[in-house]
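forwarding from the other thread:

> can someone predict this with 1,3-dihydroxyacetonephosphate?

sure thing
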Amino acid sequence: KKVTLSIIKADVGGLAGHHVVHPDLIATATRMLSEAKESGIIEDFYVTNVGDDLQLIMTHYRGVDSKDVHSLAWDTFKEATKVAQKLGLYGAGQDLLSDAFSGNVRGMGPGVAEMEFIERTSEPVVAFMADKTEPGAFNLPFYKIYADPFNTAGLVIDPKLHSGFKFEIWDLIEHKQYFLNAPEDSYDILALIGTTGRFTIKRVYRKDNNEIAAAVSSERLNLIAGKYVGKDDPVAIARAQSGFPALGEILEPFSFPHLVAGWMRGSHNGPLMPVSQKDARCTRFDGPPRIIALGFNIKDGKLIGPTDLFDDPAFDETRRTAQIIADYMRRHGPFMPHRLGPEEMEYTTLPQVLKKLEEKKI
Ligand code: 13P
Ligand code: 13P
Ligand code: MG
Ligand code: MG
Ligand code: MG
Ligand code: MG
């Protein structure tokens, strides 16, 4: 029997701006998912937030893209939106881009990372959840986890990892896919995924037996809506140990606070700062972009845990570096490359300003 792990998330309103989810939304989602667990739709769940994004982590036996599970998530976000409206939270229902739900949240606004697999005797998994950035933020760290032996010792010394991993890469503009293998296609992989706004790592498989190793959400809200509707604030799942990278190999690349697109008004590059769940609240310039990692064991379909993996002094220097980078980037004010380039700014409110300027053109 294969178990499915689904993370489905949406921003349905923030307390005091795009800052943090209100506890009443967490309570509403917890109530809805408890009922669904009792009625057997899902096996187990954990509700949390990163910044203003409400996160539903669920296990079930219904496979990926399950109508029942997606409907449950959609109804939960709808119900939470009602609470957000009542409380006057900012951007109530922000990520629910359509009223016509058709059985799958893909393309409707919420972000999704799901995978189905046969549960191992011990099944450690990491749930990554980020705010104020986009799916391409996972390209650099996930490349390092699954293709860089300077990050992942197991690629060199563990025979179960030694043959490498297969990357499923999505072109979010042309809606095409690539399947490329590491290490042999690594330069091709990098040629694509270095363009973080367009090419994203969707899934990773162990090459020798095609076993699913990782999944990332791929929703780009601005591309769906055709205008600025906030950032995508992606999520990802990675399986750890026994034939997959060790837990610490999965966390290691996040010790480098690399620059990602998002931050203020979804229009700026800034450092991705790994934080504990309690620090997953965006403040400075609506950021800096933050990521949390929760570790679970899945046992008989139940979620054991979580453990708050970045709640650790081992990441203090990373956070300090991120602050220094934040200071440095902020000093550019409205200038590139702090502010994003014209291609990405197309989906913000900047074109409206530039359009008005046309009148002054001589
Ligand atoms: P243990 O010997 O504690 O299981 O550690 C193995 C391992 O994967 C460490 O990275
Ligand atoms: P969110 O996508 O997190 O709502 O961010 C929107 C924004 O404009 C932050 O400045
Ligand atoms: Mg928001
Ligand atoms: Mg957000
Ligand atoms: Mg958002
Ligand atoms: Mg041990």
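The radius of gyration is 20 Å. thats all i got for now
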